[in-house]
Specification:
Order of helices and strands: HEEEEEEEHH
CATH superfamily: Peptide deformylase
CATH architecture: Alpha-Beta Complex
Strand content: 15-25%
Largest sheet: 5 strands, antiparallel
Number of domains: 1
Structural class: alpha+beta
Bound molecules: nickel (II) ion
Shape: globular
Helix content: 10-25%
Number of helices: 3
Strand order of the largest sheet: 1-2-3-6-7
Length: 183
């Protein structure tokens, strides 16, 4: 699925921000992968490229379906993005990594999160074809971050540096009470 990787004046979908209830609602599994699902994925990509992000999950645009898009190569107009439908992590490596994450729903906030380094994920692509992927590095990180969104979890929920969290939230106009720490 190729969509121009350019910023639009008016992106098709609004990306909701920390504090919005829609970010906390779990997403439902998708049955048949239809043209309507592909339309949503296309609109999500257009909105993601406009916001200059590398990943976006459907709940961030108020759609509670298990759908997410990722593109780690924003500079290359011909490399296709990945569309993940009903993703499931089927294996997790033993190693863990700390990496500074951000999120289009929490603009300006960047904080360290600890996650498994390597994963295996199974999903359907935008044509409904079953796929399996082994990922590490940024791709693994991004898939795990976006899959959290499908469960109503945000990366700030996983931040353990409480002082850093409060400082970053405050500086960017967000409230600590909207974080639901998981650790
Ligand atoms: Ni995010």
């Amino acid at each position: 699925m190729l969509v121009p990787k350019t910023a639009l004046e008016t992106p098709p979908l609004e990306i909701h921000k920390l504090g919005a209830d829609v970010l906390r609602q779990p997403a439902r599994r998708i049955g048949k992968v239809t043209e309507q699902i592909r339309d949503i994925a296309r609109d999500m990509l257009r909105s993601m490229y406009t916001a200059k992000g590398i990943g976006l999950a459907a709940p961030q645009v108020g759609i509670h379906q298990q759908l997410l898009v990722i593109d780690l190569d924003l500079e290359n107009p011909t490399s296709p993005p990945l569309v993940f439908i009903n993703p499931e992590i089927t294996a997790t490596g033993a190693g863990i990594d700390t990496y500074e994450e951000g999120c289009l729903s929490i603009p300006g906030v960047y904080l360290d999160v600890v996650r498994p380094t390597a994963i295996e994920v199974s999903f359907r692509d935008e044509m409904g074809r079953p796929r399996k992927m082994k990922a590490d590095g940024l791709m693994s990180r991004c898939i795990q971050h976006e899959m959290d969104h499908l469960n109503g979890v945000l990366f700030v929920d996983r931040v353990t540096d409480e002082a850093g969290l409060r400082k970053e939230l405050k500086e960017n106009g967000f409230q600590r009470q909207h974080v639901q720490s998981v650790s």
